[in-house]
Structure formats: C-alpha cells, structure tokens
Amino acid sequence: MRSHPTLDPLAMAGVKMGLERMRSFLASIGDPHLAYPVIHVAGTNGKGSVCRMVAAILAAEGYKVGVTTSPHLQHINERIRVSQGPGPATAISDTALNAVIEQIRVARDDWARSASGLRGELGETGMPLTWFEFSIAAAFLHFAQERVDVAVVEVGMGGRLDATNVVRPDVTAIVTVGLDHTDHLGPDHASIAAEKAGVIKAGVPVVVGPLPRAALSVVRAQARERAAPIFEWGTEFVGGGTCTDAHIRTSRVERSGLQIGLCGDHQLTNAAVACQLVDLFRLPVSEEAVRIGLLNAHNRGRLEWLAPDLLVDGAHNADGANTLAQYLSTRPHERKRTLVLGGGSDKDVRSVAVALAPQVDRILTTAGTHAKARSPWEVARELEGLHLPVHPAGPLADALAAARNGADLVIVAGSLYLIGDVRDLLGLP
Description:
The chain is α/β, with parallel strands linked by helices. Helices cover 36% and strands 17% of the residues.
C-alpha cells in the first residue's frame, strides 16, 4: 500500500512533537503498547539497522517479534512487520493494514470528540493525530492483536518528545548522535543528545554507541539522574574484525567468528549494540540464534547493490555520507563514479555532497516524488563551488538514464524516499 485516504490528509499537519496526544489516545484504546515487552532504539544513524538485527536474532530464537521502523521506502506496510523464525520479517498485509487503520480512525474520532482538554494540542490544522502518531498507534495495536512476544521500536525523531516514547521499555539504546533535524532537535551534539536521552527511563538499562564527547557527557548525566545502568561502547561492549569475521564482546559474553549480513564495516558497531541489547533483554537467546540473526538481518536502501553498476544508500546527513564514503574508499576506483543526489527541503544536501566528493567523479542532481523533494536545479545551486562537475539531470528516471551509461559506477544517495523511487523505477518490490 503506497498511500491511504485516511492517512494522506494527515501529512498537512507536519511534525508536532509531544506525548500528551499519544498517551491520551492510546489510553482510550486500552494501551496496546503496554501489552508486550519493548526494546526502544534511538539514534541519528544506525538505529534502523540495530532494530533489524535485534529483531532477526529474537525471531531466530522462535519469538514472535513486532518491528516498527521509519521511514518506509515504497509501501506504508514496511513500517509494521512481524517476524518469527529465521526468515525475513513479514510486512503487514494490505487487508490487515486497512483493518487496523479503520480501527484507529474510528477510535481517534471518538477520542477527539471527548478529549476537550487537548484542544490546544491539535494545532492549526485541527488534526487530532499527526501522520506519524497515527501510524505508530496502528503498529502498537497490530502488535497487541498479533500477541507478539516482544516489540522492537525505532524512534522516529529525537526521543524525548517522539511519539514512540510512550513505551515502557525493558532496555533502550542510543546508537549515534549526529547533526540532523537540527530545526527540531537543536544546533549541536549536546542539544541533540539531550533530546535522544529522553528515551532513558528510570532504572532501565541504556546501551550507548560511540558518541561525540559532548553528547556522551549529556547521556551519562541523564542516565545518572534516572539511575539507569549505562553500557557504553568501548567499555562494557565492543566490536571488531570484519563483517565476514567479526568478534563482539558484550558485558555478558564474548563471541567470535560472526558474519554480519548487512553491508559495510560500520555495521560492526551496530551489531555490537544489537548483541548488548539482546544480552540485557529478559528473554533468553541462544548463541546459534545470535549467529543466525546477525547473518540474516537485512536493511533495504542502506549500502544496497541493486545491480553491478548501481549502489544505493539512504545517506541524508553528514555522518551517513561519511559512512558511505568510507565504504567507497575500501573498494577499487577502477571506473568513473557518478553520484545521483537528491534530497528534501529539510536536509543539508551540501554536507552529503562534501563528504562524498572525494569518492566520486561527477554529480547529477535529481528529485524524487516525495512532496518535500527539492528540484534538481535547487540542489545543484546548493553545491556551487564544490570543485566537481555538477549537472541538474531532471527527474529521477532521466538522471538514472544519464548516469547508467554502461561504464560508470552509479551511486544514489540523499534520501531514503529517493531510494524507494529507484526501486520503483527498476520494478523491485
């Protein structure tokens, strides 16, 4: 399902941070998010990969696992998945999604009529729930109806005021802190860390990836204030080696000879975070399940080869682009590389281009179909002075046709929605 008549109008409400609407609405439908244990994962980059690894490990053990991540690439259904066993997680069917959306719609309308105390929370649009809040409520309700053993929940933006932060997690994570969504979260690492640290709950363990010093200081302070045990990268847990021969030490066990199915050596860090989360979680997991889960986890749109000449990555900020650049630096530069770059109006496309410029030979700017997509010409203007050939190439279909000349390696980056459009053009599910 690519859109829905109930959800589409909610897009006009945009982003409206806060928890009171979600708490009030979820209480009106029986608090489905409290029906199962939760692993809650925040971070600027890497949180989606961590969620998929954790879910794959738990599913390999035989647990029924609900997973909600964002954004979706092609279909709304991707945001709500249930997994059990070593195979890939199954996205909610159109039939089931229609049903849960209708349940949420009816309940929302009843709640909005009675929730007079929240009138000031509705904003200028008068929408009782934002698009993201509605979709998260649908995920929570679906997981309760499916009687999952555990839900793995990815934070949408920040943490403190994110709609997912109504959960009562068994364990939380802050994977990374980088400069993204600065208009909502703050201008520097410390400010953004304070928002992400909002997921830390009293007495609940928090797993912390490698953070900038200012960010780590903020997270440590929040953990101390809430008496939350903190497990830090490089101290309580660490990962090393390569994706084909990884070793990971957590606070409980040391593992070696692991294979990480997700592409890129940066996934060693994400895998270590995932292992530490699993080792702290209440449900027991065998070593075999850990090995199977790490190998089988998949995250579409992140360092994904769609063809021998076509690599796509949803990098949309400087940290993500640096990770992509590091990956490219490890590969032979035997042919020209063309970067096809597009991004939304809320993204710093120049920082992405600056990070990738040493690894590519030219840039073609483009625009995907998302409502926030900048025009190719606007993106090109952002890249002036880059000392690299930059050409506005028009819509994505035209840009890909120009880039895939039979000789170049083509890299598409700048937006996960753009990657979804690439998959659509290629007829990939």
